[in-house]
Design brief:
The chain has 331 residues and is an alpha/beta fold. Helices cover 35% and strands 23% of the residues. The chain has 14 helices and 18 strands. The strands form 4 sheets. It has an 8-stranded mixed beta sheet. A 5-stranded mixed beta sheet has the order 2-1-3-8-6. The chain has a 3-stranded antiparallel beta sheet with strand order 15-17-16. The mean pLDDT is 95. Iron/sulfur cluster (SF4) binds next to strand 7.
């Protein structure tokens, strides 16, 4: 909790949701923060001069009301796992972790975290979609929702909502070690926890502030010991020096520690990002990840076809030693 207090010294609150029960509940977690009233979140989130990394070093929270949809069609670079009607929900913008490869750095003008508190309106929108067709919805793309569960409690709300709607499938993707915060809940089969895992060598170097591999694995084991089947995401697999050595030892560790029968499926993907996001990231954070000489195709940057094939083939070969091929989804 100290971590949040240090970072969230100021909470900006839109007047429109000042009296919303979620606002009041969230503010209770920050008795020492300075509360600042604002008209619209964009006044704080998108001023013309802003330094992403100064803000990241001392993140602030902005509590806001969503006035337009937060549901968007899944992007072609995201894995749908064979589901039709694939959407994602952007109910929180930005993340407490700081992965060097994260597209949020290219997508948003600032690093402060915007939280739309009127979740009930998003639920109504999802119900309107469900009246037309089944829905596959990723709720933790533009943030790590489980990492924020201690202050938001939104994962619990989504679990309860999902339980009421059998034709809805929700994916909650995370690098968090905080499964204990939802462990006591009755989690339905159509709510899928998906952990993104990386070798420790990669996590230490590029996934700042995120829990290490052991902590993530412990969280997955807690979920599995409750009988939950989980999704594993090895994405992005990075083209790092000694990648073969790191990744094969890593896959062996992951699949020897986890219950293989309680793995729903696995996704593998390499680093890929839209051209505009990478250009912005290169200006904001020139580092090994952003300055790599990627190739461009269809508006996206990624490794060359040869490198992508080499990394994905390696991962698929290693993982298929433990998991049936039909459960491995490759981008
Ligand atoms: S955990 Fe995900 S959303 Fe958060 S910084 Fe890392 S890549 Fe971005």
């Amino acid at each position: 909790m100290n971590y949040y207090r240090k970072n969230f010294s100021h909470i900006y609150v839109e007047k429109a949701i000042k009296d919303h029960p979620e606002t009041e509940r969230i503010l209770e977690s920050f008795p020492h923060s300075t509360i600042v009233d604002i008209e619209r979140y964009m006044d704080v989130f998108s001023p013309t001069y802003q330094d992403f990394y100064s803000e990241k070093a001392s993140q602030k929270i902005i509590l806001a009301k969503s006035v337009s949809t937060l549901l968007f069609p899944g992007a072609p670079v995201c894995q749908s796992f064979g589901n039709d009607h694939f959407y994602y929900c952007s109910g929180v913008m930005n993340c407490i972790y700081d992965c060097e490869y994260c597209y949020l750095q290219g997508m948003y003008p600032g690093a402060n975290m915007v939280i739309f508190v009127n979740l009930e309106d998003t639920f109504k929108e999802v119900e309107a979609l469900l009246a037309k067709h089944p829905v596959y919805l990723c709720i933790s793309y533009d943030t790590d929702l489980l990492a924020l569960e201690g202050i938001l409690g939104f994962v619990k709300k989504w679990i309860e909502f999902t339980k009421l709607h059998p034709s809805l499938t929700v994916e909650c993707r995370t690098k968090s070690a905080g499964f204990d915060l939802v462990e006591a809940l009755d989690i339905p089969d159509n709510f899928i926890f998906a952990w993104t895992l990386s070798p420790d060598e990669v996590a230490r170097k590029y996934e700042h502030r995120a829990p290490n591999l052991s902590a993530r694995l412990e969280s997955i084991k807690r979920a599995q010991s409750k009988g939950l089947s989980v999704r594993l995401c090895f994405d992005p697999i990075l083209h790092v020096t000694n990648y073969l050595l790191f990744y094969s030892a890593f896959f062996e560790r992951v699949f020897s520690e986890l219950d293989i029968d309680l793995i729903t499926d696995v996704s593998i993907g390499t680093f890929r990002i839209s051209k505009s996001y990478l250009s912005s990231m290169r200006k904001k954070r020139p580092c090994e990840i952003t300055t790599y000489p990627y190739e461009t195709s269809g508006g996206y940057y990624s490794y060359s076809d040869a490198v992508n094939t080499k990394l994905l083939d390696m991962a698929e070969k290693e993982i298929s030693r433990y998991i049936p091929a039909e459960k491995i989804f490759r981008i």
